[in-house]
Every structure is written in C-alpha cells, then in structure tokens.
Amino acid sequence: MTKIKAYVAGVVAFIACPCHLPITLPLMISLTAGTAFSAWLAAPGTLLLVGAISTIVFIGGLALAFKWFAQPACAARPTPNATASLSKAKPMK
After folding, report:
1. Rounded to whole angstroms, how far apart are CA atoms 17 and 14?
2. Is the whole model's pTM more than 0.70, yes or no?
3. Within 13 A of 84's CA, how many CA atoms are on the CB side?
C-alpha cells in the first residue's frame, strides 16, 4: 500500500510541476470551463498565485513520494528469526 501511495504522490508532483504549468493551466481551464474555478484560473492577476500553489504542491508531493519510497514494504511482519528468539526468551519475574 505504501508503494501505491508513493507512486500517486510522484504522479501528482509530476503533474503539478511548475515547468508543466504552460500545458496544465490551459488544460485545467478547459476541463473546468463554465465554473467559478475556471473563471478564477483565467483571471489575469492569479497567475503568480497559481504558480506558487503549483510549486508548493510539487514540493509536497515530491517529499511524500521520497518519504514513502524509502519506507520498507513489510515492516509490520516479524521475521522468522525474530519470532524464534521471542519464544526462547525467559519470562520476566
């Protein structure tokens, strides 16, 4: 499950990358055409704000992807050696 989250965060970071903004911004405006969100995106004064939001989402998605890719896949399951050593442990008094 962690790997899936990492891939999703990586894809979101790739799409939200500010260098893709000349492609993704018109696409987003056309996909949300007729809504208040589309009108806000198309307004002349919001380009800097949209770029800043895109940068924050990009950095956040990239950080989460790196964090989740670094986690081990099976950390919850104990290894066979660990369970064998637990059964040999002496009970506490």
Report:
1. 5
2. no
3. 3
Longest dimension (CA), the chain: 74
**CA pair distance 12, 59, nearest whole angstrom:** 10
Rounded to 5°, angle at Cα 73 from 61 and 16? 10
CB of 10 closer than 8 Å to CB of 65: yes
Q: Give the residue, 1 or 51, on which the prediction is more confident.
A: 51
End-to-end Cα distance, the chain? 40
Which helix (H) or strand (E) segment is 40 a member of?
helix 36-42
17 in helix, strand or coil? Answer: coil
Question: How far is the C-alpha of 52 from the C-alpha of 88, rounded, in Å?
Answer: 57
